Amino acid sequence: MEHVTVHEGVTYADRPAGEMKLDLYLPERENPPLVVYVHGGGWIAETRANIPEPEQYAAEWGVAIASVSYRLQEAPDGSDVKEMYDPENPTPRGQFPDHFVDVKAAIRWLRAHADDYGYDAAAVAVWGASAGGHLALLAGVVDDVTDLGDAFADKVEQTVASDESGAVQAVVSWYGVADFTLTDDVEGIIPLLMGGSQSEYPDRYEQASPVTHVTPDSPPTLLMHGREDEVVDVEHSRRFFDALDEVAVDAIRYELHDLNHVWVESVEDIESERVGMELLAADPTHPQSVYEATHVETGGSPDPLVADLPPAGPEAIQRFLERTIE
């Protein structure tokens, strides 16, 4: 594997709750495009270390990779999600939309410091899994945090590298949450995020949903989801794909048959995302269905997002990135 330069624990924002940091992996390539990784963990757990082999994929794909921390959800005493809360996790905590505000701040900070580290500020993709998939999708379809919606107007502020754009040129989502209105829970992590149930705050649920913000200007998107996902139903990726297709934005969706969250067969087998790519790559013949939305201007010819449709896994992501941010 070629040499990759690693910058760990780089501070991109100083919040009242603490410093927000990122890790940056740079391949031996002049001015590579940038992939911003957003980890999962139910918006409340895990750290930016929850990423599949960033040095390996920075080298193999020829991209810079930044794995970013974001403020995790606080869990009040007596909360029914307390079992997800790790008091030893050093990541600062807050309340949604702090998670999204931080991801956007990291993107702007990375764009502002592109010349310092040597990657291409004009070619940025965001990739996330599960809760991180939600934040990645939202970062793709909402350019400015202040555009999230009036339900959160008093909760968002753009203070980090505010002169830079937070827009991205492509999105990769692994089993990301796309539509909060699919849930009617009155307890659990989503009501905690939204400050209450959907019946109490319908506007929050709608405006926090990436699918709400899809427009013809949304970036091309690669979606991968297990059909038997019991944590984030595959319907989330289906709805997001259909919304992109409806407004003529190119997208591709992989559905892996019989697989649950994090590419396992049973929720009891779920491990961290660090092994997610390894699980995908281990069985490239696993049954899967692929759906393409490729839109052609009048007189043009089709230009698919992923040439020859390799199995879901690192090669498919690499080809998508080559098509969208190279």
Automatic annotation (TrEMBL):
Domain of life: Archaea
Ranges for domain BD-FAE-like: 22-74, 95-244
Keyword field contains Disulfide bond: no
Coiled coil region boundaries: none
Gene Ontology molecular-function annotations: hydrolase activity
SUPFAM superfamilies from the UniProt entry: alpha/beta-Hydrolases
Family annotation (Pfam families): BD-FAE
The keyword Hydrolase is annotated on this UniProt entry: yes
Protein name: Acetyl esterase/lipase
Organism per entry: Halogranum gelatinilyticum
Alphabetical keyword list: Hydrolase
